[in-house]
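Hello,

Our lab assistant flagged a job as stuck in the queue for most of the afternoon. It eventually completed. Since we weren't sure the result was trustworthy after the delay, we are filing this so someone can double-check. Below is the sequence as submitted and the structure that was eventually returned. Let us know if re-running is recommended.
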Amino acid sequence: MTFWTTLYHRLNRRNAGSQSSLAPDAPFVAIGDIHGRLDLLETLVAKIDEQAPNLPLIFLGDYVDRGPDSAGVLSRLKSLDDTPSRQTTCLMGNHDVMMLDFLDHPEQDGPRWLNYGGIQTLESFGIPPMDQSPTMMRDQLLSKIDPSLLSWLRQRPLIWQSGNIVASHAGGNPNRPIEPNREHSLLWGHPDIHTKPRRDDLWVVHGHFADDEAYIKNNRICVDTRAHRSGQLTAAIISPESVEFIST
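-- returned structure --
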């Protein structure tokens, strides 16, 4: 059974812990970590089309691993990205990078990826992972994945910005400027993000740090709600001074 939860926030400095007003150039929708849940992605996109038609879609990374259909998620996102009638941006996540590292260096990076959900990704491409070397699994994956899809995945950006809000997978280091060359904290996060607000008047919207519910704290909007396990994929409809959460 699928159900919807919607939570609306009218932001101010007192209830959001913010140092600045939320001021994107225009409304947009940020979607949290999908992790192979094509079923939830389809359901959530349909709901967004009902509630926020034609708004830009910003996907925050971690499309693969853990869930049952990473192959389907990647194909669906590329299809959305290729649709000229809907502005779509798909950012890079750390699990997406781990998959690419596996393809480039299977013996070195394969064991870590397989332990963090790569087995489910291989299975979604029809590749049994048992009793094979990482290089053999890599070669099979390269034979299964569309080269154009792989090229698209490699080209995913790290950040997207509208007004004073920056979207990235893991939010970055609150002590440093948000720049594409600071790749590690944008993909893997920084421990200070939980305790230190930014001092540059920027807001960040991100995934990566999973919680039971989406939340707003210290100029941050976090929308990773453990979709692969909870069945709750979350989006944030972000407008000047307001955030509306929608979850499956």
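-- support follow-up --
The delay was a queue issue, not a problem with the job. The result is valid. The longest strand covers residues 5-10. The chain has one domain: 5-93+157-247.
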